[in-house]
Design goal:
The complex is a heterodimer of chains A (about 350) and B (about 300). Chain A is an alpha+beta fold. Chain A is built from 8 helices and 20 strands. In chain A, the strands form 4 sheets. Chain A has a 6-stranded mixed beta sheet with strand order 6-7-8-3-9-10, sandwiched between helices. In chain A, strands 13-12-11-14-20 form a 5-stranded antiparallel beta sheet. Chain B has about 300 residues and is mostly helical. Chain B folds into 2 domains: about 45 residues; about 230 residues, MetI-like fold (Orthogonal Bundle), CATH 1.10.3720. In chain B, about 75% of the residues lie in helices and about 0% in strands. Chain B has 14 helices and no strands. Classes of the chains: A alpha+beta (about 350), B mainly alpha (about 300). Chains A and B meet through β6 and α2 of A and α9 and α10 of B.
C-alpha cells in the first residue's frame, strides 16, 4: 500500500483547460472522495492518476515513485469503472484472472487470488457465469473483485454506484466502507453524489471548474464550508443563502429592512459591508412569533419523519427552506415565525468566501 | 389456469388470431419481394440448368429440351470449369482474410482517437468503393504497368525485379486481388467502424490497466466485441469473392492463359458469349451451392467460437 500525491496537475483538451493546477496528498490507507458537479474535471483527474489520460503538466506520485510517465498497468493501481467494464465474453473467473494471466502469473497463484477475492466479496457461486447473466450489483462486485485480485497500491473508483438503483446503492455504499476497513487500501473515489461522499470519505475533495474548492473531513466541510459553493454543494436540502449588509454593530440588515443578529467574527464587519448569510435548513427553528421573523408556509414536502417547509418572507426574495420533524402541526398557508440562531449562521464576504467566526 | 372461464379463452384465441394476421400482413410485402426476386429466379435457374436452353430456344421455345444432368456432367468434364473453380477458390481463400484484415485495420485507424482529420481519412478510404470500376481499372493498369508502374517502382527499392503483373499467369491473380481489395475494403471498413464505435472505451481501458498490450487487447477485447460483425463481413466478402466478375473482365479479360477466369466469368462466357444458357444456369447453381456451403461452415465456426 502507498500514499498518493497529485502535484499541480493540469490538463487541457485543445483550448479548454479541464484541470487548472490540482494538488492533493492522500495518506496511505486513506479513503478520499472527489466530488463536484458534472464537468468539474473529477473523472479526468482520476483517469490521469490511472494513466488513461496524459497530464499537460504536473506529477502523479504513488508510494514515493513518480508514475507520471508510466503505463496504467505499471502504476500499481486498479480501477472500477462506472459501467463495470467487464469483458462480456469471459466468465467471472476469467474476468478476475485476466490481469494476472497477462502478467503470466503462476496458474495456482492466479486461482488462489481469484478465489480469495471471490470469497471476500461473496461471489464464489458466480465464478462460472458470464457478466450478461449477472445483476447490476453482482457485476459491480465482480468489477471490484477484478480490482482486488491485482492487489493494487491504490484503488480508483469512477462513479461506481451511478448505474445501480437506490436500494442497491445504499447497500453497496455500506459494502465499500466494509471492504475498505477490511483491506485498508488507499482509495480515490469519484462521485457527483454528495451522500456517497459524506458517508464514505475519510476526506472529501470538492472540485469545481478544474480547481479544488476545499479539502477536509466530511464534518469539516459541512460545518465550516470555505465558500458558498461548498456550503451549497453539500447538504440536502441545500443551505439557504441571503444577501445582507452589516450594520457595524453585530447585526445584518436584510434588503427588506429586517435584521438578524450575527455571530462574533474574528474581524468585525464595518458598517455597510456587503455579505451573504447562510443557514442550513435543519438549523432554522420555528418558534416564538414575538421575537422571530414572520413567514408564510408556501409549500411543504413531507418525507415521512421529516418535513421540508418552503417559507415565504413576503418580500419577493427566494423562499427559505427549513427542515424539521414532521409532527403534522403545519399546513401550507400557515403563518409561522422562524428564528436564525446566531451560532448556526455561516457568513460569506462579497466574493463568497467564508468569514472567520470567533471561537465561542 | 385450467379453471379459466370459456369466454376468456376464446377472447385470447381471437387476440392470437388477430396477432397472427397482423404479423402476416406486415411481413407479406417483404416475403412477396423475396419470393419474386429470389426464390422464383433461383427455381427458374435450377430448372434451366436441366435444359439445353440456348439461342435457338430463345427464338422458339419449342426448341427447348430437357437434358437431365447433362449440363452438370459436361461442366465437371470441362477443364476450364475446374480452372475457374480453382482461381475462384484461391481468391476466396486469400482474398477473404486479406480484405477482412485490411478493412478491420482501416476501421481501427479511422476510429482511433489520436488520428487527426478523421472525417477526411474516412472519406479518402471509402472513396475507392464508390468510384467507377472501369475508371479505376484504367488507373490500376498504370499502377501495375511493368515498366512505369508505381508498384514495381516501390518494389524496386527492396531489390525486387519488375513484375509483369497483368501479363504473367502467376502474377495476374494477385494483381486482381490487390485491385479488388483496394476497391472493396472501404465498404467493409464502414461496417467495422460502426461496430467498433459500439465497443465501450472502458473495456479497452480496463484491459490497459490489466496490462494488456495492443495485440492482446485486439484479441481479447475488440475482436470478441465485434464478433457478429466480423462474421457478417466475412460472409459478405466470401460471397463477393465467389462472385468476382467485373474486375477480371475489365483488367485482364480472364487472361493471361485463363489465369484470371473466375466462376462467374466462366458463367458469363458460357451464357452470353456461347449462349449455352442451360449450362450457364448450371454454373450459377453450383456457385450457389458453394457459397451456401462455405457460409454454413462460417456460421458453425462462429457459433463454436462464441461470436454469435
Amino acid at each position: 500500500m502507498a500514499g498518493l500525491s497529485i502535484e499541480n496537475a493540469r490538463k487541457s483538451f485543445g483550448a479548454t483547460e479541464v484541470l487548472k493546477g490540482v494538488s492533493i496528498d492522500i495518506a496511505d490507507g486513506e479513503f478520499t472522495v472527489i466530488v463536484g458537479p458534472s464537468g468539474c474535471g473529477k473523472s479526468t483527474l482520476l483517469r490521469a492518476v490511472a494513466g488513461l489520460e496524459e497530464l499537460t503538466s504536473g506529477r502523479v506520485v504513488i508510494g514515493g515513485r513518480d508514475v507520471t510517465d508510466l503505463a496504467p498497468s505499471e502504476r500499481g493501481i486498479a480501477m472500477v469503472f462506472q459501467s463495470y467494464a467487464l469483458y462480456p465474453h469471459l466468465t467471472v473467473y476469467e474476468n478476475m484472472a485476466f490481469g494476472l494471466k497477462i502478467a503470466k502469473a503462476d496458474k495456482a497463484a492466479v486461482d488462489e487470488a481469484v478465489r480469495r477475492a471471490a470469497t471476500t466479496l461473496s461471489i464464489e457461486t458466480l465464478l462460472d457465469r458470464k457478466p450478461g447473466a449477472l445483476s447490476g450489483g453482482q457485476r459491480q462486485r465482480v468489477a471490484i473483485g477484478r480490482a482486488i485480485v491485482r492487489q493494487p497500491q491504490i484503488f480508483l473508483f469512477d462513479e461506481p454506484l451511478s448505474n445501480l438503483d437506490a436500494d442497491l446503492r445504499v447497500r453497496m455504499r455500506y459494502e465499500f466502507a466494509e471492504l475498505h476497513r477490511k483491506l485498508g487500501t488507499t482509495t480515490l473515489y469519484v462521485t457527483h453524489d454528495q451522500v456517497e461522499a459524506m458517508t464514505l470519505a475519510d476526506r472529501i475533495v470538492v472540485l469545481r471548474d478544474g480547481r479544488i474548492e476545499q479539502v477536509g473531513t466530511p464534518r469539516e466541510l459541512y460545518e465550516r464550508p470555505a465558500n458558498i459553493f461548498v456550503a451549497q454543494f453539500l447538504g440536502t436540502p441545500r443551505m439557504n443563502i441571503a444577501a445582507a449588509t452589516a450594520d457595524g454593530a453585530g447585526k445584518a440588515i436584510l434588503p427588506d429592512g429586517r435584521n438578524i443578529v450575527l455571530p462574533a467574527l474574528t474581524v468585525p464587519l464595518a458598517d455597510g459591508t456587503p455579505l451573504s448569510i447562510g443557514i442550513r435548513p435543519e438549523d432554522i427553528a420555528i418558534g416564538d412569533a414575538a421575537v422571530d421573523l414572520p413567514f408564510t408556509i408556501r409549500f411543504i414536502e413531507r418525507l415521512g419523519g421529516l418535513a421540508t417547509l418552503h417559507l415565504d418572507g413576503g418580500n419577493g426574495d427566494d423562499l427559505v427552506t427549513c427542515q424539521l420533524r414532521d409532527d403534522g402541526s403545519f399546513d401550507e398557508g400557515d403563518a409561522v415565525a422562524a428564528s436564525f440562531p446566531a451560532n448556526r449562521l455561516h457568513l460569506f464576504d462579497a466574493d463568497g468566501q467564508a468569514l472567520g467566526k470567533a471561537r465561542e | 389456469m385450467n379453471a379459466q372461464p370459456r369466454t376468456g379463452k376464446s377472447a385470447s384465441a381471437v387476440g392470437r388470431a388477430n396477432k397472427t394476421r397482423a404479423g402476416w400482413a406486415m411481413s407479406s410485402p417483404a416475403l412477396a419481394a423475396i419470393l419474386l426476386f429470389f426464390v422464383l429466379p433461383a427455381i427458374a435457374s435450377l430448372f434451366l440448368s436441366f435444359t439445353d436452353f440456348d439461342i435457338y430456344a430463345l427464338a422458339d421455345i419449342e426448341n427447348l429440351r430437357l437434358v437431365g444432368l447433362a449440363n452438370y456432367q459436361r461442366l465437371l468434364e470441362n477443364p476450364l470449369f475446374w480452372k475457374a473453380m480453382t482461381n475462384t477458390l484461391l481468391l476466396v481463400a486469400f482474398g477473404t482474410p486479406f480484405i477482412v484484415t485490411l478493412s478491420l485495420f482501416a476501421a481501427m485507424l479511422v476510429n482511433s482517437r489520436w488520428l487527426k482529420w478523421r472525417p477526411v481519412w474516412r472519406v479518402a478510404l471509402f472513396a475507392p468503393y464508390v468510384t467507377t470500376l472501369v475508371a479505376t481499372a484504367v488507373v490500376w493498369r498504370y499502377l501495375l504497368h511493368t515498366r512505369y508502374g508505381l508498384l514495381n517502382y516501390l518494389l524496386s527499392f527492396f531489390g525486387v525485379p519488375p513484375i509483369d503483373w497483368l501479363g504473367s499467369p502467376t502474377a495476374s491473380l494477385p494483381a486482381i486481388l490487390l485491385f479488388v481489395g483496394w476497391k472493396t475494403f472501404g465498404y467493409n471498413m464502414i461496417i467495422f467502424l460502426a461496430a467498433l464505435q459500439t465497443v465501450p472505451r472502458e473495456l479497452d481501458e480496463a484491459a490497459r490497466i490489466d496490462g494488456a498490450n495492443w495485440l492482446t487487447r485486439l484479441r481479447h477485447v475488440t475482436l470478441p466485441a465485434i464478433g457478429p460483425t466480423l462474421l457478417l463481413v466475412s460472409v459478405l466478402t466470401v460471397a463477393a469473392m465467389f462472385q468476382l466478375f467485373a474486375e477480371p473482365y475489365v483488367m485482364t479479360q480472364g487472361g493471361p492463359a485463363q489465369s484470371t477466369v473466375t466462376i462467374l466469368y466462366f458463367m458469363y462466357e458460357e451464357g452470353f458469349k456461347w449462349w449455352n444458357l442451360g449450362s450457364g444456369a448450371a454454373v450459377a447453381f453450383l456457385l450457389f451451392l458453394c457459397i451456401m456451403a462455405v457460409t454454413l461452415v462460417q456460421l458453425r465456426f462462429a457459433k463454436r467460437s462464441g461470436a454469435i
